[in-house]
Amino acid sequence: MQQTPRANRPHIAVFGRRNVGKSTLINTLTNQELALVSDVPGTTTDPVYKSMELLPLGPVVMIDTAGIDDVGSLGKLRIKKTREVIRRTDLAILVIDPFHGAGNYEKDLYNKLQDNNIPVVVVINKIDRVKGIKQDLLDKVKLLFGVTPIKVSAHSGTGIEELREVLVNRVPRDHEQPHIIGDLIDEGDTVILVTPIDSAAPKGRLILPQVQTLRDILDNHGMGLVVKETELEGALKTLREKPRLVVTDSQVFGLVSKIVPEDIYLTGFSILFARYKGDLMKYLEGVAKLENLRPGDKILIAEACTHRRQPDDIGTVKLPGWIRSRICNEVKFDLVSGREYPDNLEQYDLVLHCAGCMLNRKEVLSRLKEANTSGVPVVNYGMAIAYLHGILDRALKPFGEAYQTWKGYRK
Fold first, then answer.
1. pLDDT at 1 (0 to 100)
2. Which of 103, 213, 265, 350 has the fewest CB atoms inside 10 Å of its own CB, making it the most exposed?
3. 186: exposed, middle or buried (Cβ count in 10 Å: 0-12, 13-18, 19+)
4. Distance CA 103, CA 84 (A)
5. Do residue 232 and residue 381 come from a single domain?
6. 3-state secondary structure (DSSP) of residue 297
7. What CATH number has the domain bearing residue 64?
8. Helix pair 280-290, 381-388: axis angle to 10 deg
């Protein structure tokens, strides 16, 4: 990896009505021509994502959104896309200007951001075009949002340094967890990473969870040994001391569990990412539902990436096959991928979600929250596969609290 992955960068989204200067503000903040700028209202249609450096904060993703006051049938679709951005926003910039002011559009958006625990920085732009900001606008902003706005000119650069400093201080420090695996090992520990190389593996590289897990091992002064499942038994024999942990790709969980002795901790990349990107305890509730599926139940399979499907694809072929053969044959499946995530989750009995390595943590947690609000449990691929192969107890042992909670469920 030559740069920080997009999913590990804080996502800063810029919201506001059409033509308040959102795109110009992004360009000025970043000192780059990242966003298309025009005096024509509605130039920005779909949300635009740009990975870049915002000094002194560092690597971020800036999101330019369509106007929240867009009109017509296409305008409604654009507003819907803008609202979907909230799922993945770590910090929001709400832009108003002296000409449009602030009202119901802004207040409605602000309330939705607050409901999702997203910090909001309110900005009054285009101060270079007026002699002074009228007091009644400042009073209205304070009344609507309870904050004093930052006054800037994206055109001249006035107030931009102050805005940068505020952004640095307001970005949530928990936009990602500190460790994938580092808190489970001590300095000098050996960790074996089992990484199958099949027709679905990207040519010439490992997949992101494998690379990031290896990096976290090295960052915490551990030693990582990467092998295919066919070399695992030989690797275990060559070690003078047993490894602290073996981490495997979920699709070979069953095979690996038979090779690794019971006195060695074993878990999966997907389970590591269940807590790194999401909420391991919440996923346990999904496992409880998984084992109690009934005929006619409906499962949503949600994948964060869009990839070329293989004949034995894990999400669309293997998992549905295992569920039908080992739990209940008469269940139904729907699939969404990429940024898709339905609003009507109530129609499902369970969400079966991928590890979420291509999503930032905020979006994974937002998806979990939406499912929870709809009364639908969620389980991720790795935990489901471990359960279906009868080894979830073992795969959870490295995670003390989750393991004890699961034992309580089993009782």
1. 40
2. 103
3. exposed
4. 21
5. no
6. coil
7. 3.40.50.300
8. 40
Report the half-sphere exposure of 129 (CA within 13 A, side-chain side).
Answer: 12
Q: Domain range for residue 53?
A: 6-170
d(CA 44, CA 35): 8
For residue 24 the two structure tokens come to 């110009």
Same domain, 96 and 41: yes
Residue 251: CATH number of its domain: 3.40.50.11420
Average pLDDT of the residues of the chain: 89
Q: Are residues 302 and 366 in the same domain?
A: yes
pLDDT on residue 201: 62
272, exposed or middle or buried, with CB in 10 Å at 0-12, 13-18, 19+? buried
CA 196 → CA 199, 247, 249, 250, distances in Å? 10, 12, 7, 10
Q: Does 370 map to a domain?
A: yes
- Identify whether residues 157 and 211 lie together within a single domain: no
In this prediction the pTM is: 0.85
CB-CB contact of 157 with 28 (8 Å): yes
CATH number at residue 318: 3.40.50.11410
Q: What is the pLDDT of residues 289-341, one digit of tens each?
A: 999 999 999 999 999 876 666 777 888 899 999 999 999 999 999 999 888 89
Amino acid at 260: V
Does one domain contain both 141 and 243? no
What is d(CA 377, CA 287) in angstroms, rounded to the nearest whole number?
8
Q: What would the DSSP string read from start to end of 23-48?
A: HHHHHHHHTS--S---SSTT---S-E
Number of folded domains in the chain?
Answer: 3
pLDDT of residue 340: 85
Cβ atoms < 10 Å from Cβ of 241: 8
